[in-house]
Please model this.
Amino acid sequence: MDIKQLKFLIALDETRHFGQAAARCHITQPTLSMRLRSLEEELDLPLVNRGQRFEGFTAPGERVLAWARTVLAAYDGLQAEAAACRGNLIGTLRLGVVPLSSFDPLPLMQRLHAAHPDLRFELSSLSSEQVLEHLANNRIDIGVSYLERLDNERFDSLAFNETRMGLLYDERSFNFGEEPLSWEALIELPLCMLTSGMHFRQSIDHNFHSRGLTPQPLLQTDAVHQLLQAVHGGFCCAIMPLDGGAETLADHLRLQPIENAHTLAPLGLIMRRGAPRSALAEACFALYQKLPKDA
Model:
């Protein structure tokens, strides 16, 4: 058994396709299949359900896969720790961020990459529950999520500034002047929102309901890019984090402040407390504390 075999197994899980897994690992499909069969023979266990195509993992395969992730994370962590002891950072910093976070990870990644050119980044959009689950399972190094129910015995955190809200719209279709908008004015507009149950949507609903208002969104989606496309097409407007930079993503987008608009819980940077500590996560935490507050 070697590290590459575990990487092949994880690639198959992430792509759910033999050919795509082989391409990701820069090997041929027959080589991938041969190495996985060799792993099965060594463990004396069937790991993969095979038909004309990939059909999933066996029950033992799922358990081996979980261990493969742990072993590979430990291997990468060891390499990163050794490099950190030499004054360098290498490997991949894995970040999980909740949808419509007011936190822009780009300045953080730019500074880390400038100081450590061999460092790479993996950015995932996750629910608040998934962020904590992935941190606990060592599938990400850093999470950006809500802090109201955080277990401080298991996780360290750095709270961000309060998240303010604004209305994102395309100026070719709408014009709201320069003044901050009221929630009473928003209720009359064609709104697109994240689906109910998502944390940012809960904050929006709370702001409406606390004023005796009930929103009737024109569009609901669980995909932020679809929400942005609908706004850019002039189909609707969307309530977004005021400091998230959404208005810079396309021409003609504007983000207007909303009066007395707050989220239900603070956002923050989260890191697993349990050993082994991630050298990349610790470096990320340390750098964030040095960033200007508007970064």
